[in-house]
Amino acid sequence: MKYIKVLFKSFFLILFFFSSYGLSESLNKIVIIGNDRISDETIKLFISTNINEEIDDVKLNNILKDLYETNFFKDISVKFDNQTLSIIVLENPIIENIFYNGIKSDRILEIIKQGTLIKQRSSYNESVINKEKIKIESILKNLGYYNSSLDILINQTQNNLVSITYDIDLGKKSKIKKITFIGNKGFKDKKLRRIITSTEYKFWKFISGRKFLNQSSVFFDERLLMNFYKNNGYYNVKINSSFAKLIDDNNFELIFNINSGAKVFFGELDLNLPVDFDENNFSSIKKLFKEVKGKPYSINTIDKILDEIDTITTLEQYKFIKANVTETLSANSIDLKFNIEEGEKFYVDRINIFGNNITKENVIRNQLMLDEGDPFSEILVNKSINNIKSLNFFKTVNSKVVTNNENFTKSIDISIQEKPTGEIYASAGAGTSGASLGFGVKENNFLGNGISLDTNFLLSSDSFKGKFSVSNPNFNNSNKSIYVSAEAIETDNYKSFGYKTNKTGLSIGTDFEYLKDFYLGIYNSHFYEVIDTNSTASAQQQAQEGNYWDSFLKFNMNYDKRNQKFQTNDGFKSFYSLDLPIISDTNTIKNYYNYSHYFNFIEKNFSSISIYLQSANSLNNKDIKLSERITIPSSRLRGFEYGRVGPKDGDDFVGGNYAYSINFVSNLPNILEDSQDFDLLVFADAADIWGVDYNSSIKGNGIRSSVGVALDWLSPIGPMNFSFAYPVTKKTGDKTETFRFNLGTTF
Predict the structure, then answer these.
(1) Which of 200, 246, 276, 497 has the greatest number of beta carbons closer than 10 A?
(2) Angle at 351 between CA 349 and CA 357, to 5 degrees
(3) SS3 readout for 135-202
């Protein structure tokens, strides 16, 4: 019986073997049936099967899988018989048209189109429709439309074509009526509301688009809260949840559930250096350690220490280092060890620059902080790219590092895309005393040499100003700049004030980076001036009639910590200049200081507050000249004519010895968000000018202020600016200027 069972099993194994062997046959012919738009050749490319190949069940299943993955077909079947592979297909319809109903905003429509899965002229697949609906609903929620509705209508026409219609009812934007923090520890809710981007709806918060519920913003707010807590000592903070609770209709309560954990403080901080590194070079790090120890844990503090390590290693030419931090937590204390390790030593083999058709290569190479043959440093590469971007000659600047492990070298490929660097600009203003007109031509990259040429004119009812300047930021292939300018000014106040001035001058100077982000400048200026008066001029003005020769030394100090030079939204810039007389008939010393702080209220917002101070005094107790007296610049006090505010001697505006202004400007990114060519700004100015050295009894000081709006338009002929200012506080006799227009274009 046992032997009979063995023989029975063996018989079936042999039968199975030969049966299986019989399924595998050589392919001799491929026949495709049912295709209309898609060619036989295209289908054959996707199946990856060739004539004379062996065909079995596994191969047939793979063919089906490959064809379904194309999304070209609604149904597919395959059959292999007599060495012939038959493929029978039913093609998916082609999407002929896509319609969007219910969307009036071009911006919203563009966002939906970019985010959809289904595209025109692609194959229609029923399985994608549900995914498409979920995708669009998510987009609408991210835009603040939580109560929107969406229907997708499919209309199949002849010739196997399909039209898709999205019926969208946006409804009203979902407002954030209240923001609540659960588990908040150590901070008032008011403080946390300032940290996040979402804001409670208030009728006066028209600037902010975050008064509406926005899903992506909520996720971003979670990260902001995490960072805030971790920067204030709460190392173990967790955001357990964030959710929106419907209050009524379109009003929601946004709730953040926070588990802050215990407060953690910095314990021991240690620096681990390679044996051949000089510890004395890292004394500033040890000083930071002493300052930090015992203070609350902070990510920003750790980043500050790492930045200082980067600075030291760069200055001391430690090229092959990498730094990391090891954290050891115990109870409410955390110990940090900063490990500086030597990496593999690579050298710069080649630096290749692509895309500079106009700009000379040496202009770009002058911005590099490393050269071919130097030890490779990623820090210096990044700084070099930022330097090139700051030239403002290029639309894009990209870099790629190629490593050759065989000879331990790296090649740096820098690709740029140039943009027009010439500018034509014009301005016009209208005020109570007449109109003004300005015109200028500027080339920032003359003949591709990085040299700037600027010619500008300003003409008003009583004055003419003309100036020509040349600036070379990398004179003689160095990191020093040279600047030369010539200017002429004529002011005709015969009719109004009884005097006229003619002034011509020449200036030359240089500036350079003295410390990181700190620049020094030295300039020498020479001016020749003629003052004429008539019988209507005041006695003080008549006393100043004559010829003057003035020579000055100008010293500049500029500390620039802006995060970027264009559309700045973080950091500050501080500028101070001092004019010291060398040869001067009046020996006037001038001081000028300006501080600007940049920030943003919401996403895409750029705001700034500036403080401006200026003084002019004579070193020999003489009266300073009319032309050297201080007037408030038009850009510092919009809504008022230049030189037509402040102390008056009779009917004459005589300027002052001292002046200051405070200026605020902010764009409104959500007001004209549907148009990419327009930007709306609001501003507020306040200024004062006082002090008349020859007659202290002359008054006229007092704060002038104004508010206004400005519109920037990227027109077909170039950028235009329209500003309207309303004087809030003014003094009797002040001359106002409510409207100003500026036009600029590139070539």
Answers:
(1) 497
(2) 155
(3) HHHHHHHHCCCCCCEEEEEEEEEHHHEEEEEEEEECCCCCEEEEEEEECCCCCCHHHHHHHCCCCCCC
User: What mean pLDDT value characterizes the chain?
Assistant: 81
Domains and CATH numbers, the chain: 12-91 (3.10.20.310), 94-169 (3.10.20.310), 175-259 (3.10.20.310), 265-342 (3.10.20.310), 347-418 (3.10.20.310), 424-746 (2.40.160.50)
Q: Cβ(220)–Cβ(197) under 8 Å?
A: yes
Neighbours of 420 (CB within 10 A): 14
pLDDT above 80: residue 250: no
Q: Is the pLDDT of residue 179 over 90?
A: no
Share of the chain above pLDDT 90, in %: 15
What are the C-alpha distances in Å from 697 to residues 375, 631, 656? 68, 19, 13
Q: Hey, what are 400's tokens?
A: 């790629």
DSSP 248-297: ETTEEEEEEEEE-----EEEEEEEE--TTS-GGGGHHHHHHHHHHTTSBP
Query: How far is residue 320's CA from residue 326's CA, in Å, rounded to a whole number?
Result: 20
Angle at 647 between CA 641 and CA 649, to 5 degrees: 110
674 Cβ neighbours under 8 A, 6+ residues apart:
105, 106, 107, 108
What number of CA atoms fall less than 13 Å from residue 379's CA on the CB side?
18
* Structure-block tokens of residue 505: 């001058």
Query: Do 167 and 150 meet the contact criterion of CB atoms below 8 Å apart?
Result: yes
Query: In sequence order, what are the residues at sequence separation of 6 or more whose Cβ sits closer than 8 angstroms to the Cβ of residue 542?
Result: 533
- H or E segment to which residue 307 belongs: helix 299-315
Q: How far is Cα 145 from Cα 139, in angstroms, rounded to an integer?
A: 9
CA gap 312, 306 in Å, rounded: 10
Distance from first CA to last CA of the chain, Å, rounded?
Answer: 102
Of 272-286, 318-332, 444-458, the range with the highest mean pLDDT is: 444-458
- pLDDT tens figures, 363-376: 888 888 888 888 88
What mean pLDDT is predicted for residues 558-562?
88
- Torsional sign, CA 267, 268, 274, 280: positive
Q: Percent helix, strand and coil across the chain, each rounded to 5?
A: 20, 45, 35
